[in-house]
Design goal:
CATH superfamily: Uracil-DNA glycosylase-like domain
Distance between the termini: 43 Å
Number of strands: 7
Strand order of the largest sheet: 3-2-6-7
Shape: globular
Structural class: alpha/beta
Largest sheet: 4 strands, parallel
CATH topology: Uracil-DNA Glycosylase, subunit E
């Protein structure tokens, strides 16, 4: 089934890092915001690496991201996908991430999971010339990684943003 990304990026001119996923899951598309599956550990991990309380509402999540200089988007604008399975992604149309980079202070790009990293390198990096650091997926499908192990790997985000205590 062809899926269109129906909500835009979260960012502002002061964003210092960009985190990219592949495309929103079925649950995220239903909720109209990023990482909406209740078992996805994205928000728990970001809260842990920033030393903050986990945001719950969409408004809290946007405030959290922007307050920490984090921009959030996905590599894909539209594609063929079965459910939420990254391995089924075909026929990719990428988002124009270069526009966001040109209008912000983003210094580093991170991808959430191997598929997002692969898609970024294939479809976006040639036009931006900017490398991305791949982090392990926070998806519940990545069951081999515990919350503690994910948090340890994602601490690079906290270090990049210079949070005390890391």
């Amino acid at each position: 089934m062809r899926v269109e990304h129906t909500f835009g990026p979260v960012w502002n001119a002061d964003s210092r890092i960009l985190i990219l996923g592949s495309i929103p899951s079925v649950k995220s598309r239903e909720q109209g915001f990023y990482y909406g599956h209740p078992r996805n550990r994205f928000w728990k991990v970001l809260a842990a690496v920033t030393g903050e309380k986990e945001p719950e509402t969409v408004t809290e999540k946007k405030t959290f991201l922007l307050g920490h200089g984090i921009a959030l988007w996905d590599v894909i604008a539209s594609c063929e996908i079965e459910g939420s399975s990254d391995s089924s992604i075909r026929g990719v149309t990428p988002n124009d991430i270069g526009v966001l980079l040109a209008q912000s202070t983003i210094g580093r790009i991170y991808t959430n999971g191997a598929k997002a990293g692969e898609l970024y390198r294939r479809y976006v990096e040639p036009s931006t010339g900017r490398k991305a650091v791949n982090l392990p997926s926070t998806s519940p499908a990545n069951a081999a990684w515990s919350l503690e192990r994910l948090t340890e790997a994602w601490k690079v985000i906290g270090q990049e943003l210079q949070f005390p205590g890391l």
